[in-house]
Every structure is written in C-alpha cells, then in structure tokens.
C-alpha cells in the first residue's frame, strides 16, 4: 500500500493573481490559506507572499497557472529553489496542457467562482484533495557541502596553526554529518578533499530531498554547511497521485482480497492482494491508480463486498451470466503475471468486463471529436447512463461559459478620477519600493548581527587559543625538565649497576671471608642458590643467574617437591644438589633415577652473600662420593628385595600346583 499522506493534514496556500502582472512592478495576489477545515483570505503583494511562505512553510502552494508566480522559466526555477524544504508548488489544472480551472473544480465537486479569491480558494481545496501536478525543477538528490566558513589567511597568530584549526573543524563537522546521515539510513556518496590539518571540504550526494535530511543549512565559526538540490534539465510535472485515468477494476473478495486495474485500452496496469487490509486501504489503493468506470466480479450474483466498492465509486457494475470457469480465467490471463489465484480471478473479472463493453467503448470513441477526454465521456456514458451527445453538449457548454468574457464599455473617467488613479498607482509603486527597502534594511541588520556574532565567537576562540598556547608552552617546558631529570637518573642507575657488577666480580674472586681457605684462594666452586624446591623458584634462579649442566645447586628448603618439580630440576643436569630439609619420596626417587647426587648442605661449608655462594671443591667431592656409596647400597637393597619377591612368587606357584 502507498504511504502517501493526504494534503488535508497540512496547510495549503491557494494563490491567484488579483491585480497587475508578475512581469510588471507590483502584482498583488489573492491568497486563500486552507488548513483542511477553515479558509483564511487576504490580498498580498508578491514580497509579502514570499515572506508568508518562508514564515509558515505551507505544504503546498496551489495555483491554476504557475506563470502567475514567475515571469519566465528562469524565474520559475529560482522561485522553486527558494521554497522551504517541505513546500511544493502544485498546478491544479494539469501539466503541460492545463484544463480550465472551472472544469477541474466541477469534476471534483469543488465550489468555484470567477473572482480571483474564489479561484484561489478552489485551487487550495483541489490541491488539498491531491488534485494536480507538482511542478519540479529539481531531482530527489541533494548535495550537502561542508566547507570552510572563513578564509585561511592570517588569523592573528601562527597562520599554519590557524589553517590547521579551520581544516580540523571542517573534518569534525563532516564526520558529524556523515554520522547523522547513517543514523537516518540515507543512501549517500562522500567526496572529501584532504588539506593541511584536516579537510578543505566534504561533499555528500544524498538520495533524498532536503526535508528528509537531518542536517540543516548553517554557518558557524570556521565551518559552513550548504544544502542544494540537484537541478533537472527542465521543468517536470509529477501527479500528486500515481494514476487518475479512467479504469476498470476487478475485485476478488474473501479472506484474501485481490484487486486488478485494467485500462480502457485493455492494458493491465496493476494487480495487488492482501490478507490484512481493510476496505479503506483497498479504496485508497484503487484511488491512487485511477477512477473506476466499471467494478467487476468473476461470479454471479455480484458479492455484496464488491457491490459496496461499486457504490463507493458510483461506477457501473459487471458480473458474468454464470461463474467464470477456472480454465477460462487461466486462458484469459495467460499473458499477464500474477502471484496467486486471487489476483488471477480479479484480473480475469476486469478483462472479461472489458470484453463485454468493448463494442460500446468503440462506438463512444467513434463519436468523439479531437481534444475530448475519452475517459471522461466513457465514464459518464457507462456509469451515468448518459448519451454521448448529451455529455459532449454539457462539456461544450462548460467550455463556452469558461471562455466567455464579461465585455462592458467602461465610462470615460474625469480628470480628477484619472489623477486619483495615477496617484493610487504611484502610491502602490512607492509602497512596494518602501517594502523592498525595508527588506534590504532587515537583511543588512541580520547580516550585521550575524557578523557581530561571528566576531564575538572569533575573539573568544582567539583568547582560548592564546591561553591554550601558553598552557602548551608551560607543559612543554615541564616535560623537557622531567626528561632531563629522567635521563640523569638513568645515567646514575647505569653507573651504579656497573659498580655493583664490578663488586660482584671482585667478590667472586676474593673469598678472603673463608678462614680456612688459603691465600691463593684455590679449590672453590660457585654454588647456585634456589630458595625453595618449587618450579617458580627454580625458574627465578635460572632467570637471575642461570643454571647450567654441571652446576652445584643449593636448595634452602627442599620439602614439598612433587614429580614435575623434580623432573624440571633434573632437566638442568646439575652436578650435585645440596639441600636443607627432607625430600619427598617421589622427588628423591626421580633424582635417584636421573643419577643426580643429593646431599645435606650441612656437610659442605658454604659462604653466602645475597644470591651468591661458593663452596670448597673438596667438600663437594666428598658429598658426591658419599651419595655414590649410598646409591650402591640402595641398588643392592633393591636387587635383594627383587630376588626375595621372585622366590616368594615361585614358592607361591609351587604350593598352588
């Protein structure tokens, strides 16, 4: 279904020329403002009309002749471009070849009179009922341009910084516009021109009218936003409704309602079906596509639902003498696409109704002179049961009454009356000139206010920028000072680290704290200290000073180690492990199987300073020899235990036999 909104829900300006001419100095207009219920009437100048349009932003400006508002095509295009985003110009009498307003008003039962105010009111009411064509010089594509709001010349401080700030503001505003267009689900293309510090401009080509775009034209500080619809090659007329030709309508009622629209020439214009739409929705769908001459059904008698639709349009009805067979309906609709059987039945009803009236339509067409609307005559003959001759006579009388001019011989004016007329025209011209001058003064006052506002904003921005520059300079000086202090601290740390390394190296060579070591300081081995027998402590010791194969390892607390911890230490393949505390059975077994000697730390004299330690080579060798002796005893005990177990198992087997 269409989502068209009726113009009855909005304000419509009906306009007709009251006096003067748009090509002259001071035309005046009859203005009828229609809001769907009440009509407000006034006579206004061209300038006041434009001001009212800008202030009230009506949905439609309705007229019977668009060139009463503009002298030529160029002025008309300028007028259309100056209208508010939500306002359109409608010519209610048609497109390129308009009909007389009286005929259009009579067709739609709208009150009409020849007075300009009555014509303005008739135009407003017709447009409010979606009669007429929108006059358009622009496409539905809109260009939104985000650009610099001021020159990038010197701004009172560093020109580079000033330019960078302006281009940065343009980029920020362009991102905001892009986000707003995306949030509105609008299709658009972006063309941005990069420049120093940001963007020089960004142009968004949006597939929508300005009224549908959530961005407004504005100018603020460094950035301006311009909105302009793309021009057409010429003037285009678009009907306010999709189709208003005379048509034949086929309806298949039921749970699913289907409707088919067929033109008087036999072309299938549209077909539609719905399970949820009510009677009002169906009527609106039909109205948007044409004016029914015949409403048809595919069964007899005509269903009550179809009869209601026929009465709604005051159209002729058609039903077959007997229900149409399915095979005939399929054959009649074979050249036209449809989605379901309901649409097929509705289409068949309309096409069979066309076939039944084909001869009558042909006779009507033969009797029509050139320039007469065939659909109008056909509708009145078929639905209104009038004769062709009677309809033609009525139409000719209407044209003659429209074309009649009220001829009269004006009396000769006296000199005083001529002088009064001249003065009145002079006063009217002067008043118009005063209005133009007042408008210029207002425009200049507005411009002065705008420039003063921009100047105030620029001064505030400049003061902020100066304060910001001062703060940046202060922070830069502080950062430089802190960097110097950091570099000095790093140099001092590096010096101390080198000193510590030298002291460690000297200490490792100087073991004079061993009272029982000779002055030559021979026979010492380094010892790698592990705080606890855990995987974390082992890895930490390895990271600090490295554990290599053949190293002497001292574990301060050997208790609590499991299989994985013992296997990790065994992977380093130490020469001997000196321990304080008891090993777990599983750890002892793993180290024994890996043939890694383990001995008590109390048997070896060690000297420790922080993580460093040394021991005498003789004590280490003694601890290793002691482990080997214990290992031999342990192996013999294991073998004896195995022999005893075999003997026991053998004896147990003999007893069973």
UniProtKB/TrEMBL annotation:
Residues 405-418 have a biased composition (Basic and acidic residues). Residues 167-194 form a coiled coil. Residues 395-404 have a biased composition (Acidic residues). InterPro entries: DUF460 (IPR007408). Keywords: Coiled coil. Residues 392-418 are annotated as: Disordered. This is DUF460 domain-containing protein. It comes from Natrinema versiforme.
